[in-house]
Amino acid sequence: MRHAQSVSRREAVRSLGLMAAGLAASACAPLRILTGSYPDEFKHRPDVVDRALRAFVSTVIPGADPDAADLTRAYTDPHYPFARYAAFFASDLTRRAHDRFGEHAFDRLTINQRTAVIRDGLEADGTTRKLYQGAIYLAQIAFYGGIYDDDAGCPLIDFPGRYRGDAVTYEHAHHFLPRALTPGGNHA
Prior knowledge:
The chain has a domain at 36-160. Helices cover 51% and strands 0% of the residues. The chain has helices spanning 9-26, 29-35, 40-44, 46-60, 73-76, 86-101, 111-122, 126-144. The longest helix has 19 residues, at 126-144.
């Protein structure tokens, strides 16, 4: 019967450290977010993050102007929780773009390629899926709700933007509104 070799505590800790580092580098999204194991370029270069986010918004919002000043502001606004994840999200878009199409920048992909990358994110693990869904909802709320631009709208879906003080009317209102009441409270 052979006896097991003894391993020093130092060797065991070093081996565990190497295993943990390997897991952190390739693990699921929550661990990568917590450990900050995504490229430093996204942590220190807001312009790189902004380009990826602009391409994302112009993909999920038809007709959005990718050069609009406040297009991605909601993603980095500290009043919204997504700001903590914006850099990671941009890096994930770019990583998926590279893995799927060999492109090192998400914003250089065609609209169909960007759509495929976003679909990949929506079909990934639960945390990544929630991150992508949240990013889409935030884009829709910021753009259509006019968080930063009350005059925003979307001509592709015939949405004019905010209410501008004109009379509110509905075509054929008599079909869905109740019958008018007389001053005495009786139906006309």
